[in-house]
Amino acid sequence: MYLVKLGGSVLTDKARLRTPRRAAIARLARELAAASESVLVVHGAGSFGHILARRHKLHERFLGKEQLAAGARVQRDVKILNGLVVDALLRSGLSAVSLAPSVLLTMEDGRVAAFDSKPFRDYLILGFTPVTFGDVVRDRSRGLAICSGDVLMLELAKAFRPTRAIFVADVDGLYTADPKRTKGARRFESVRETDLGSIDFALAPAQAADVTGSIEAKVRRMFEIASHTGECIILNGNVKNRLRDAVQGRPVVGTRVAGRS
Question: How many domains does the chain have?
Answer without folding.
Answer: 1
